[in-house]
Amino acid sequence: MRKKSTNSQEEMAKFAKALGHPTRLEILRLLSTQSCCFTGDLVEVLPIAQSTVSQHLKELKNAGLIQGEIDAPKIKYCINKENWEKARLLFSGFFD
Q1: Does any domain span residue 1?
Q2: pTM for this structure?
Q3: In whole angstroms, how large is the CA radius of gyration of the chain?
Q4: Residue 91 structural domain
Q5: 3-class secondary structure for 7-19?
Q6: Which of 14, 46, 84, 85 is the most exposed place for a label (fewest CB within 10 A)?
Q7: CA–CA separation, 21 vs 27, rounded Å?
């Protein structure tokens, strides 16, 4: 009989999937060093195309690890502190 996954397991899997790419880890590292930044700022420091940066930002946002605020015509991104803490606690508890 297969065990049903819990909400916390599903949430941790969602975070883990978003964290499963080196570029997304680098984006999170960059965002964690400042309050917020625009997509263009990330494009300037990452060695990938703007469309690829946008795709990685979308994955991180869908997982809830970052949030975006439209400041037309740009989008400003920052760490979603509530979900960042939730992810930290979930992974910390998992590895204890």
Answers
A1: no
A2: 0.89
A3: 15
A4: 8-95
A5: HHHHHHHHHHHHC
A6: 85
A7: 10
